[in-house]
Fold this sequence. Notes:
By secondary structure, the protein is of the alpha/beta class. Helix content is 36%, strand content 13%. The protein has six helices and five strands, in the order H-E-H-E-H-E-H-E-H-E-H. Helix 4 (79-86) links the parallel strand 3 (73-76) and strand 4. Helix 1 (12-24) crosses helix 6 (124-138). The chain starts with 11 loop residues before the first helix and ends in a 16-residue tail after the last helix.
Amino acid sequence: PGMGGSAENWPMEHYQSLVRSFVSQGLSVVVSIGPSDLSREPLFSSLGAHCIRAHEWGDLGVFSGVLQCAQLVIAPSTGPLHLAVALGRPVVAFDPEVSVHSPKRWGPYQPKAASQVFSLEVTPKEVVEFVNLFLKHQNKSAPVPGAPSAETIW
């Protein structure tokens, strides 16, 4: 959930709310802990998330394998998000509404799988509702109402 970039991020409390919601639904949640997130690892673990420190592995291939197994990747505009896009994984991204940090400039550009970009104003409840709808339709090969097509460039 953290990021070392210059763009504004979604509030950390919102990511924590997502973890709580998804764990309470019986979903397996993996949180990638970066160097700036180390102090938050105990909190995410206490919420029921599996925390990984991919930056300590020294092997992008292993982290790519973890992302490849994900049903959905939720992240700000960071390396893990763009790696998930490159792997064709569906993503939910959070981007500030500032032109130099916009999804039109940075993506996700995703030819293989659906993506949804939310502004930083979105609430955790709205994201949970979208994700639940996405997961419900994911195995049915039906389009998610309101979701962009794979051809959409954000």
